[in-house]
Amino acid sequence: MTTPLSGTHFGLTAGDYHATIASVGASLRTLEYKGRPLVVPFDADEVRPAYRGATLAPWPNRVVDGKYTFAGVEQQLPLTEPNRGHALHGLATWLDFAAVDRSASSVTFTATIEAQAGYPHRVDVVVAFELDEDGLHTSVTATNTGHDDAPWGTGPHPYLVAGDGRVDDWTLTLPAATVLTVTENRLIPVGLADVAAEGDGVFDFREPRPIGDTFIDHAFTGLQRDETDTATVWLRAADGSGVAMSWDDACPWVQVHTADTDDEATNRIGLAVEPMTCPPDAFNSGTDLVVLAPGASTTAGWTIRGI
């Protein structure tokens, strides 16, 4: 049997939830709750579009111009976002992860990011997915198996679906006090701003309100968390159905994107919500960048659930 283009597929079921994970990029291909989608899916035998559901590592978001200096050495990464001239979403998104543990409701994958031009470090990556009555739980663990310190960041890339309609029709609750402003065309980070002041409050979703025609492709921080240090984004449709995404304190940032495209078939059909361990271009700024010593490990985790 021919392997689908998106890799080997693993179906997970628990209670009212069903998910399908594709091995290429350890990608969340489908997630349903009571038969309705919680994420924008993609077909098994297609090249995964727009990083849908991919695991981002060893950095999320962009490295500007693909250039950075680490440990005194200048590096040049391949420019995987050619229209803006950046290195986008890491090196693991097209790796074919191997499944090492499997049950009806869970699967664990491993892959190695080998030392290469632009990233001369070897990092083992373990991505674990588990469904239960509270939703889909994902964790990413990185272990530096090389000889030198390695820069690291991670995050997921799901496009959340609240229910009927598109992004414009849904209500967002985003408990973030601060937005990272960016340049208009290349989305290069500029600086931090109060969400209440920037653009007359256009990015302030601390209280639930409709997204409407607002364009968002920004990172947020200053997250309000509950007593367990968990931050949660809520996305609801007009009928009250929806989806929530929560993440632990290993991710002090979240990228939100309204998925604007020139194709009407895909324009604003899901809201990208991407918890991140570091902001865009952290390989240059150093902000919240994880530096893994040889033999050291780090883990981050998040959950998607229906509401």
Rg measurement, Å? 18 Å
Structure summary, number of beta strands: 27
> Which stretches are low in confidence, meaning pLDDT under 50 for 5 or more residues running?
none
H/E topology pattern: EEEEEEEEEEEEEEEEEEEEEEEEEHEE
Mean pLDDT: 98
Helix content: under 10%
Number of helices: 1
Structural class estimated from helices and strands: mainly beta
Major beta sheet summary: 9 strands, antiparallel
Can you tag this structure with a few keywords?
single chain, mainly beta, six-stranded antiparallel sheet
Description:
- With 307 residues, the chain is an all-beta fold.
- It is 1% helix and 45% strand.
- It has 1 helix and 27 strands.
- The strands form 7 sheets. The protein has a 9-stranded antiparallel β-sheet, with no helix packed on it. The protein has a 6-stranded antiparallel β-sheet with strand order 16-25-24-21-18-19, with no helix packed on it.
- A hairpin with a 2-residue loop joins β3 and β4.
- The protein is globular and about 55 Å long.
